[in-house]
Amino acid sequence: MSADTRTATSGAARSSQGARTATRLADGRELVYFDDALREGESPRPPHDLHDPRPLPDRFAPVDSAPFQGPRMRRDPLTGDWVPMATHRMNRTLLPPDDACPLCPRRPGADYTDGEVPDTAYDVVVFENRFPSLLSVPGEPTGPGSVVDATPAEVPGGLWLEAPAAGRCEVVCFSSDHDASLASLGPRRVRTIVDAWADRTTELGALPTTREVFVFENHGREIGVTLTHPHGQVYAYPYLTPRTERLLGQAAAHHEATGRSLLRDVLDAELADGRRVVLETEHWVAYVPFAARWPVEVHLAPRRDVLDLPGLTDDERDDFAVTYLRVLTALNRFFVAPDGGPVALPYIAGWSQAPARDHRRELGRLRLEVFSVLRGPGKLKYLAGSESGAGAWISDTTPERIAARLTEVLA
Amino acid sequence: MSADTRTATSGAARSSQGARTATRLADGRELVYFDDALREGESPRPPHDLHDPRPLPDRFAPVDSAPFQGPRMRRDPLTGDWVPMATHRMNRTLLPPDDACPLCPRRPGADYTDGEVPDTAYDVVVFENRFPSLLSVPGEPTGPGSVVDATPAEVPGGLWLEAPAAGRCEVVCFSSDHDASLASLGPRRVRTIVDAWADRTTELGALPTTREVFVFENHGREIGVTLTHPHGQVYAYPYLTPRTERLLGQAAAHHEATGRSLLRDVLDAELADGRRVVLETEHWVAYVPFAARWPVEVHLAPRRDVLDLPGLTDDERDDFAVTYLRVLTALNRFFVAPDGGPVALPYIAGWSQAPARDHRRELGRLRLEVFSVLRGPGKLKYLAGSESGAGAWISDTTPERIAARLTEVLA
């Protein structure tokens, strides 16, 4: 089944303009190059190097004569949440030396690469994480109808449910330039990244174990990012994440009570109110949500009802690329250092989209949430007792103040 | 209504053995001293100094000729969660200078105090936070029957609900010794602290706006603690916290399906399995939960079904004091620094207890959750995309490994 065929289920046309080239790494993991679309007069690129010369063992090979064991997950009986857990065999024993970035392209002339990318250059490349928290292992019983769907009462001894943490963790490299950042890339590249995100949403959503595809970027050392090479991630979870579960629960209650879409109504209400809208373009609206939880938070939603990334049209993708870069530029102007200089904002950006498989899928609506734990230059919001212990967020600011500052610094 | 009368609703006798002395600070906030019980032969203490000489204005007085405005909270339509928000007037403009710890006792001979405690010494003292996130303001409409109970469909324009962030935030000082920590105090003091926690649960639970009382301690600079004086906090929320809401939902489903108590069944199952039980005493069980989310996590539950802190008997309180100190000592031995030295573990400790007001109160059961974001010496678990964006925790270890290490280092 091709990506284009599946995209049709999202009800929108899609025509990625760059090239897509797929291969497999030495241990069997999938790797896909996404090239920027060529501008008029540009020459076609040479074909990508597809051969990974490393002597990696098959990743499902036995370890110390014991059968390969994938990651497992357990259901917390107190909350109903599934928690994937690293197992001993899955430990990251093979981290590269500090001077070898695994996301950089192969050095020209080197006959062996420490990194994950066989080619000496790329625009955008996606590959499966070598040390994944979620992994579908051949032969392991998973997928719909498995224990993930069961209520405890349906399973003997059902207080404690355990299952393979099946799924997929992928890395999305935004540039072969180690020192770039997404905010520094031009709209043509961001457009390619959107195409890659949409492709992975479609591909990973089609895996039989996938319930939800989450596309996100962790950016900045302050939130624990250790690989500074510009990249994001894609997780295909075998369960609905707690945030999506709650959102769909709210959306279902709203639909039941009003017959309308909660996420459509929220966007319309933000537009009608206007106090927290920071940017409107032909296809997108950027706003600080009514009940923002973080010191800096902004959501980007398409004007049209779109379920997920594959559902975006070419025009919407092009417009997003320009709009998102304006928002990221503003975020890097949000705080001013004591010496008057800029403060690169650490942030988490995550796409909330309709789940791949759920009877409430049609209640979903695409939306990018961007937020930061920075509450001032050098000052972090810590998630302490109330947030981490009781799950109760408390904000030190107001959405209107965040919106006013964003409006001030938007170019 | 006295504390003892109310405690009877928890179905357990209580006889705090130390003295309790209540007063008001200059701006009207409540302050309560709790003295350790005297050992045989010890002389009674002199009466506590109750007079706060600071010229603080009434805390509900108008600011710049405008009526006092308390903190507000908004309901996130995407999750249903309430989010209290600091307002401009509530900003912490009056932080003390660095050399004046506001939790230290008054310096003997000083006729004016920078700190919050009028006396020159104390065992345990509790007072209302001067800059609270939750505050009941006289005359503001709150309490049961208010918008907090409403579903959006019941309120005109109900997509966005807003209400006073009514409630109470209190500080619990564990010792007048600025350099002590809870783990360094003896069992007699910890017993007094338990009495203080129980007293505050009763008193704050009786406030008409309170739905849930959360008793917790944030410990260590790594989680953002700025005041190093040993102290914990008590929050009285005007709503159920998201964690308690989910727990009661799970408990109600379990009760519906089995007729039994979820939290009792979880404890029994942990005891029967035994692999994660790290300590058993006459009245308490310490175990790493089946689906632990944090790099270090341990729960302490009473053997007897107890709804909340006020429901603990004297014997259970005495036993807890000794047991908790053993657990905290073990936690400080959990990691070993590269030089072989100890690693003081930053931690969050929070009491999960039955809510003060909820029709499912009887499904609650007292339990202390202690966990740490430290996953190794100098290494933090960051809550990035999966956790902060999707609410999906992923563990880098297993509960059995945590339990094995705790068992190893328990004295």
Any overview of this molecule?
- 2 copies of one chain form a homodimer.
- Chain A is α+β, with helices and mostly antiparallel strands.
- Chain A has 2 domains: 3-56 and 70-240, HIT family, subunit A (2-Layer Sandwich); 243-409, HIT-like (HIT family, subunit A, 2-Layer Sandwich), CATH 3.30.428.10.
- Helix content of chain A is 21%, strand content 19%.
- In chain A, strands 1-2-5-7-9-8-13-14-12-11-10 form an 11-stranded antiparallel sheet, with helices on both faces.
- In chain A, helix 2 (187-205) crosses helix 5 (314-331).
- The longest helix of chain A has 19 residues, at 187-205.
- Chain A is globular, with a radius of gyration of 22 Å.
- Chain A starts with a helix and ends with a helix.
- In chain A, 49% of the residues are buried.
- Chains A and B meet through strand 4, strand 8, strand 9, helix 3 and helix 4 of A and strand 4, strand 8, strand 9, helix 3 and helix 4 of B.
